[in-house]
Predict the structure.
Amino acid sequence: MAETSVPASVYELDAADCISFVSESWLDFARGNGAPELTRERVLGHPLWAFVAGDETRRVYEAIFERVRRMERPVVVPFRCDSPDRFRFMELAIQPSAAGRMECRATLVREQTRPFFSILDRAFPRSERSLPMCSFCRRILVAGAEWLEAEAAVARLDLFDSTRLPRLEYRVCDGCAALARPGGDDERLAG
């Protein structure tokens, strides 16, 4: 696996979870991941929730943010931000500050190249069918009960040769949902 020295992507939220700052590296990351529409003008002053896919994902982040504000201590949340040609293992460090504000710093821990994986290509044609994918670990829900690594799920569902893939529906698997459960005061919500 290749180690990287990519600058952290930083954004800040006000007490109402509106985006009040984004770093240049945050903008670079958005552009590099097929979201050039995420400009400062488009995001500043808007609720973070306008840019979060999936109600379950939103609820988990809301619970994490509430915990950070209540404890007034930073936490670190591991997550994946894979692209069609890379596995990306990341951490989101959430630091509370005055008056309910927070700094969120996404750091690339490690990345690894992968063979092109069309299901993660936003430009690939999609069918009306949806496929649940965990917003945090990027596993896919198969047969309504089993969360598998994306490649294993696509193989089991025989989607490798599809010309129209299902659209991804972002959800949260049971393991990652534990990030939001009350309990333990450790600074690292999951590992």
